[in-house]
Amino acid sequence: MVCGVLIRGFSFFLLPLYTSYLTTVDYGITSLVSSFLITGSFLVAASLYSAIFRFYVDLKHDTVRLSRFYGTIILFVLMMSIIASVVMILGKEIVGHYFFANIDFFPTIFISILSLVFYCQYTIYENILKSQQQAGKYAIITLIFFILTLVLNILFVVHFKLGANGVLLANLITYVVYFFVMLVDLWKSSMIMWCLDKSLLKEALLYSIPIIPHNLSTHITVFLSKLFIGDIGNLGEVGLFAIASQFGGIADIVQGYVNSAYGPWLYEQMSMLNDSVRNNIAKISEILTYVIGFFLLGIALFSHDYIILLLDKGYASSWKYIPLIVSVFLIKILYYFYVEILFYHKKASRLIFVATLSSSLVNVAISYYLIGILGITGSIVADFISMLIRVGIVIAISKRFEDIGLKLSKLIYIIMVVVVFMGIGLYFTYLNYQFTFSYIEFVYRVVVMFTYLGFVLYKFRAEFKQFLNQRKNPLGGKNE
Predict the structure, then answer these.
(1) Taking residues 224-253, what's their average pLDDT?
(2) Which residue of 184, 243, 332, 386 sits 20 to 30 Å from the alpha carbon of 173, by its own alpha carbon?
């Protein structure tokens, strides 16, 4: 987990290097291909990545069947991805027009199609290591391949100046090497037997195919949004959208890690639910919303400075979309709180796909219409509307199962407070400093940030004082 965060953080701070050598069009191409690989892999692999987690639990004590299972999954996905690649190469005109915004087939689309074959295997190995909880090995391998990718990117992009094709080639080589490392590791560990076990494959597919829509829903909307933006504008617009989305990715990391701690805590609270516990859940959810809001406010207020000061001038306008993207993640806070209720109740968890699938379909429809009118902003508005729909459905379903004490009106109020501070902080930025940096205006935003922090600390002063007292005197005794 820590390794993943560090690598994501380091990748973020490499943006100035990449944007110095990649035009907005280059960055748009790499972003589009990345979405193609993620979306395509779920279809080609029939979402069998999820089966790796589930079936390991059943087979981990039967090494023979486990090795047959791994061999079957790897071989089946390899065959399917090769067949899919051949079909796409034969239909290159159709593929290029509908899935790559008319990018040149050779070498860009050709490299992307080859990458799909090995990206699927890359993802399989990742999930094998995660399912076996081999955190140390996973961290080491991830770090090594991150460094390999970085070195290859510097070689192809900086030295040979291959642009987007350099990035794609570096990724392809990394995926290929990763594939052979997987084979050697599984072979040495006696965890792979080359076969197509029809019984195991049938069980795995019966499990994985029904969850393809759920796994695809978010990724396919992102991919289609990029295609729509590329169709009405150019791939440079996709590049700007990708840069802005990087900051949204930071917001997602913040929410994800808060939720990873909140979920288990909530399940424990729900197991002994009463009025006192409900009040505690309500209070903690409010505090967490303010805390997450603090980080999202920081992203919205200071992304401007990072982009204007450190990135190439061609990317300067991308910062304007970040506050809008942050607003979507503010709404997503509600989703995280209420969806945990559905995960706790097994019957309710089966209904989550209703929210994800329906909101994704709405997203695609609205994106298709609004992107033609508003461009990148249209895509973000579609995300905002679809997130509202997703949250609304999840809340409605959760109410049918259990009231855990969450105060929806208070949570919405907190989100509105963050939005107000965001508007106050960015008022002069939008008015006078869209493409320039001002120390005075920067200090003003810092003051706004600390004002928000002071507001939160004052509101929860009793809880904060109690927390400090507990830290000073953890055993609960009296100070001498």
Answers:
(1) 91
(2) 243
Work out the average pLDDT over 87-106: 92
- What are the distances in angstroms from CA 320 to CA 109, 205, 255, 270, 431? 31, 44, 22, 41, 12
What angle separates helix 110-131 from helix 164-188, to the nearest 10 degrees?
40
Q: Is omega for the bond preceding 323 within 30 degrees of 0, making it cis?
A: no
Query: 3-state DSSP call for residue 286?
Result: helix
Does this model's pTM top 0.85?
yes
Euclidean distance between CA atoms 59 and 93, whole angstroms: 44
CB 5 within 8 A of CB 258: no
Residues sharing a CB contact under 8 Å with residue 101, sequence separation 6 or more, in sequence order: 32, 227, 230, 231, 235, 238
How far is it, in rounded angstroms, from Cα 111 to Cα 89? Answer: 11
Residues 6 or more apart whose CB falls under 8 angstroms from that of 115 comprise 33, 37, 168, 171, 172, 175
Cβ contacts of 293 within 8 Å, gap of 6 or more: 330, 333, 414, 415, 417, 418, 452
Q: Phi and psi at residue 141, in whole multiples of 5°?
A: -65, -40
Task: Quick: pLDDT tens for 274-304.
Answer: 889 999 999 999 999 999 999 999 999 999 9
Question: Strand, coil or helix: what is 384?
Answer: helix
Flag whether pLDDT at 474 surpasses 60. Answer: no
- Cα–Cα dist 17/21, whole Å: 7
Type of residue numbered 404: I
The predicted-structure confidence for 18-36, as pLDDT tens digits, reads as follows 899 999 999 999 999 999 9
Please name the amino acid found at residue 247: F
pLDDT for the residue numbered 350: 72
Buried b / exposed e across 284-312, counting CB within 10 Å, b at 16+?
bbbbbbbebbbbbbbbbbbbbbbbbeebb
Q: Determine the Cα–Cα distance for residues 442 and 162; give it in Å rounded to an integer.
A: 37
pLDDT of residue 478 exceeding 80, the answer is no
Secondary element (H or E) of residue 408: helix 408-432
Instruction: Give the closest residue to 322 by CA, choosing from 261, 257, 383.
Output: 383
